[in-house]
Description:
InterPro entries: Aquaporin-like, Site-sp_rcmbase. 72% of the residues lie in helices and 0% in strands. The chain is mainly α. The chain has a domain of 351 residues: Glycerol uptake facilitator protein.
Amino acid sequence: xxxxxxxxxxFLEKGRSVSIKDREEALDYLVAFVAMIRPRLSEFENVHxxxxxxxxxxxxxPAVLNNLRTAVMAQLINSNLVPLLTExxxxxxxxxxxxxxxxxxxxxxxxxxxxxxxxxxxxxxxxKHTDYEWVEQLGRDKWMRFFELIGISFTGNEPVIxxxxxxxxxxxxxxxxQLGWENEITHHTPAQWQPPNNPFAVQQHLVYQIKERILxxxxxxxxxxxxxxxxxxxxxxxxxxxxxxxxxxxxxGTSLSQTFILYQMEQKLNRMSLLLDIADADxxxxxxxxxxxxxxxxxxxxxxxxxxxxxxQTTGYxxxxxxxxxxxxxxxxxxxxxxxxxxxxxxxxxxxxxICFVAIFKNLLGLLQMAPFWHGFVYSVNYSLGFVAIEETGxxxxxxxxxxxxxxxxxxxxxxxxxxxxxxxxxxxTVSKVSRSQIASFIGNLIIVFPVTYLLAxxxxxxxxxxxxGREKAxxxxxxxxxxxxxxxxxxxxxxxxxxLSGIIAGYVQNKINxxxxxxxxxxxxxxRTSLPASRLQKIAAYVNTHGxxxxxxxxxxxxxxxAGIVGKIFGIPFDIRHITISAANTSLGAYGIGWEHMxxxxxxxxxxxxxxxxxxxxxxxFSLAFFVAVRSRGIHLKDYPGFxxxxxxxxxxxxxxxxxxxxxxxxxxxxxxx
Length: 675
């Protein structure tokens, strides 16, 4: 069989030119040209080389460049550009639920496309579902140079294109104005931007004037440019208002509905800025913005039916606020100085003392005769009360830290807070602080839990005349913590997930309390105002506003841990939890029940090692999941920081003890480290 010849090279060899009137032939030419750049699926790393070779080929053969310009213009002037400019890459204003349903429906049966639609042409050219990956990998700068090379420009010489641009601008303007009158926006808009100064309404009026002047051929370009300048300023105010509403969500909270509306408005305003740049009659275009549009459209067309893509985009800011709440709290769990380090140990010791009583009460509750569900329920209440007590006393439970410190670490990479690249060395210092803080809390918990639980078991035996757990039950308690004679390490991973989930719940509830203004609604409640003194009601409202999220997280964690083993028994599956402090307490109870004279010390050493392994997996799973969510919610791509692991390893080799305990004298570099 003959090797198929690329159409670009075939035209060059035969000296043929692309006709601007033959749209199909021009399309085939563009498909062939993109095929010269497209790398193989397994060779995406070679895309820069292939792109450079193709551009060099174009420079060497002016005929190819002329054909390429003609082929592009043939598609632009003979296609409907409005769907591309108003819809592609922009979420339709139909609500998150309906958008999700539409994507799910089209995933199984794709929507029919109009051959005259420019998006249809893009799907013909970039037909592989992975094309967006290498398009993004090439980056904005290379696409800018490419578009400048082929001479992409939109001027009054192409009235067909300009008319479509103006129509698209008018459509987007109306949609922005409509979103601007939604309750989630108007109720939070500051007084200086209320009507008649609402920029979302003002921009629509200006767009209408621009449309009228552009469509009147006798109007001069100076008149259009004057209006375009005014519209540009109003669009900047719209962006400013959107950002203000988004910034306020840190304190006031947000909802999925408000998040979705702000997300849509931002998309539409960005597209309007580009369209205004094309329609303003100044013969220039922001090529960087155009390249961004091109990259975004290719990604959207390749991923337009992706459920994961939609959920990731629209819930990003909501997850960001939840992660921010956790990140702020996480900073208190990170120690920088020896004083803070020993304060952490002291705080963890108090937390360990509370867990000792939780473990004793849990075993006492196990003696009650009741149905399995009610056993799980009373276990859950016992755990919840213990966790709430730890929160209220300001003490520390080691395994509660990772879900919060992970967000604090991720904030060091947050590209939304600064345009400067993150300091990876300072991030390595932050990781060392998290490591030693976690070790400090483990030490504080365990040095209390092991001996005090043993002491409480001895006091119970002394008071009641019999041990809390018999020898058979004691042997079972030890076996349950053994690293290879039980599924304790697997169950420890379950606990890590529940710790992460409870942190998400805490952040979500706190966000809803802030957004719903629960404190104000409580103080103004008609029944509570008449039945409680104003000072007491104010204290209750302040407490709910400050501790509501933490209460929800602690109670949910208590029920996750209390019901897990019962669920496993009900369904007959190996499903349970192992929590380091509770496992340490059970180890002490088991050791007392068996007695030192009957103890196999090698076996006990393995059990203690199992408890430490449980703690490690509690931390690893919880921290990893929380860090992943925090990173994704901030739009951070870890692949952009390949040097971080090397920096972290070099820091560990030079300062290994920093990961275990703080230095007596902090270096100047560490003092400036940010969390």
